Amino acid sequence: MASFLRPHNWVPGPVGEELQVPDKDAKAMVGTEDTPGGKASPNPQNLRPSVFHSIKFFVFCHSLLQLAQLMMSGYLKSSISTVEKRFGLSSQTSGLLAAFNEVGNTALIVFVSYFGSRVHRPRLIGCGAILVTLAGVLMTVPHFISEPYRYDHTSPADMPQDFKASLCLLSTKAPASASSNSSCSSYTEVRHLAVVGIMFTAQTLLGVGGVPIQPFGISYIDDFAHNSNSPLYLGILFAVTMMGPGMSYGLGSLMLRLYVDIDRMPEGGINLTSKDPRWVGAWWLGFLISAGAVALAAIPYFFFPKEMPKEKQELRFRRKGLAVSDPPVSKGEDSSSEQSPAESLEKKDNLAQMAPDLTVIQFIKVFPRVLLRTLRHPIFLLVVLSQVCMSSTAAGMATFLPKFLERQFSITASYANLLIGCLTIPLAIVGIVVGGILVKRLRLGPMHCGSLCLLGALCCLILSTPLFFMGCSSHQIAGISHQPGTQPGLELFPGCMESCSCPSDDFNPVCDSSTRVEYITPCHAGCTSRVVQEVPDKSQVFYTNCSCVAGGGPVPAGSCDSACSHLVLPFMILISLGAALASVTHTPSFMLILRGVKKEDKTLAVGIQFMLMRVLAWMPSPVIHGSAIDTTCVYWAQSCGRRAVCRYYDHDLLRNRFIGLQFFFKIGSLACFALILAILRQQDKEERTKATIPNPGLQQQLLASEAKKEPEESRVGWGSSKAWL
């Protein structure tokens, strides 16, 4: 989107024309270029700009800011399952929450091309960063306005949790149902809606605040950096920025090891470990840390000038180049002065050049026309569709892969984030770098770029195939049918606990390791007593005298471990290698756009590409993946009569639908790249045919001209012979 912006040092004139500066005026330029006001300064000390007049310092500050911003925007994805458990959200709702920051971003990003050269860009970047900081702080408000997290809803509020939690006691018949009903009130529902509304508002502000940061920063660097240094600075910026998502998962791994109410721990502590399915980590603490990082990174932007002098290397380069480049420039002037009406019309349609001269209303009217003209290009449209499919895969993986790993392989949320942050994200970065190196070193043309994209997408698809078989079925859960959509009732539970009158809305799982049968609560296992075994650094809870367990127990608290936990590392290696191969297609597909559209449409094409990727991929994909995950749920928790978080999934359905959705998008990307390669080959074939077969009309003109020449030559020959005679 930054390419929408016209540089401040742009001089109106014919296409290809450069500002002519005589060689004798080169010394005068030193004084005028080195001062922000454009006036020559007789004092040599004034030629030394402050640190805020250095483009290198701006690159350093902007790298840190984008790193912190992406760390915040990606942090929610690392803690999505924790937020679901804490506030009783479905995967569809949490997916919508994760995608909601794209709403504000997409709605405003187009206008960057209009306001780009009319505002104080560093200050607007700083204001956007402050808004991002406020959004991060706002995301933590639900934690502070909510009551402390109670993982045991059956114990009285004035007693330690799990004191007599979920035990099979006949005296708890009436109180259990009464407490369940009394906890539901209009105030509880209003508070729940307020909490969800605050998080959606914070996500919207996060997207709005991020609008000016990257486009204005890139254009500012491109305007005031030396022409040969600008690619280097942007490369450094992107390299540092790409570490942001990995750091967000690393931060999530650290924060989710801490208990959610670390700031208000109950007396006597808690008897939970991070492996317990009821564990909720300190999800809110990561938002505070990342918000503080963004706030610190925003401070320097209020001291940068609206325009800073070009780097001094630009002056030496221009002075050296003017002496040898005068003839080519004059030649360019002559050639550019002769323009056809079609070329001048294309220049008028160039929105990037028109934007600074248009009003907002005119800009809105012109944009759809140029958008449709750009979308008519088949290569551009197919490349964008392929990138939409790839981005849909990435958005779904980034949002729900941690939750998938937790459920499928029985690992903690902290460990899942650690695997993604240490394996998947770094290999994806390596894939992007390798793709750029291949394009540069091999000097790949459009045809070879299309072949590289097709090969990368095909290998990524092949690596995804074994993922369907890397998992195992759900273990048996007493009283729950493994048919999605069915809700168990008390009549489905074994008869051994009929006299217990267990509450239906409680969740405190225990596992009979001898039979690998899991019970929703100790009450459903018929357990009447509880024993706490103290071990170093933690305490283990066991339940005994269980009428539904052979021998009466004891049975440990917590869910049964997955039988395929050992497959998590091979699974993640295949996922990471697939991400690396998919990332290899990033640079060559981008080059297909740059080399496939007209020169005057390149800047707008890149902007439209990112806009369509947001609208068609990053916004709907998390919601689609969340909805698919919800269809695999076999047991929903109930909160005041409404469906809350899912407690149990059918693992086979979860794996097939989640990986199948990824597979579907990868097939779509492969099909688009195959069509691109077919079109490129057809175009190449037509160009070769035109080069080898002359134009019939041109042949007729040549024959006619030869026929005219023959009488003339005969007349000339006859006249000369007569003269000779």
Automatic annotation (TrEMBL):
Q: Does the keyword Phosphoprotein apply?
A: no
Q: Where in the cell is it found?
A: Cell membrane
Keyword Ion transport listed: yes
Sorted keywords for this record are: Cell membrane, Disulfide bond, Ion transport, Membrane, Transmembrane, Transmembrane helix, Transport
Question: Where would I find the Kazal-like domain in this sequence?
Answer: 490-550
Top-level taxon of origin: Eukaryota
What Gene3D superfamilies would the database entry show? MFS general substrate transporter like domains
Q: How does it sit in the membrane?
A: Multi-pass membrane protein
Q: Where is the composition biased (Basic and acidic residues)?
A: 706-715
Name the segments for region: Disordered.
Answer: 323-346, 704-725
Q: Where do transmembrane segments lie in this chain? A: 96-117, 124-145, 190-211, 232-260, 280-304, 379-401, 413-439, 451-471, 567-594, 615-638, 658-680
Just give the chief location class.
membrane
Its family remark reads: Belongs to the organo anion transporter (TC 2.A.60) family.
Q: Which named protein is this? A: Solute carrier organic anion transporter family member
Q: Which organism is it from?
A: Odocoileus virginianus (White-tailed deer)
